[in-house]
Amino acid sequence: MFDLIVRNANLPDGRKGIDIAIKDGKIVTVEASIAAEAKEQIDATNRLASPPFIDPHFHMDATLSLGLPRMNVSGTLLEGIALWGELRPIVTKEEVVERALRYCDLAVTQGLLFIRSHVDTSDPKLVTVEALLEVKEKVKPYIDLQLVAFPQDGYYRAKDGVTSLTRALDMGVDIVGGIPHFERTMDEGRASVEALCRIAADRGLPVDMHCDETDDPMSRHVETLAAETIRFGLQGRVAGSHLTSMHSMDNYYVSKLIPLMAEAKINVIPNPLINIMLQGRHDTYPKRRGMTRVRELMDAGLNVSFGHDCVMDPWYSMGSGDMLEVGHMAIHVAQMAGIEDKKKIFDALTVNSARTLGLEGYGLEKGCNADLVVLQAVDTLEALRLKPNRLAVIKRGKVVARSAPRIGELFLDGRPSRIDGGVDYVPIQK
Question: CATH number of the domain at 2-51+363-409, please?
Answer without folding.
Answer: 2.30.40.10
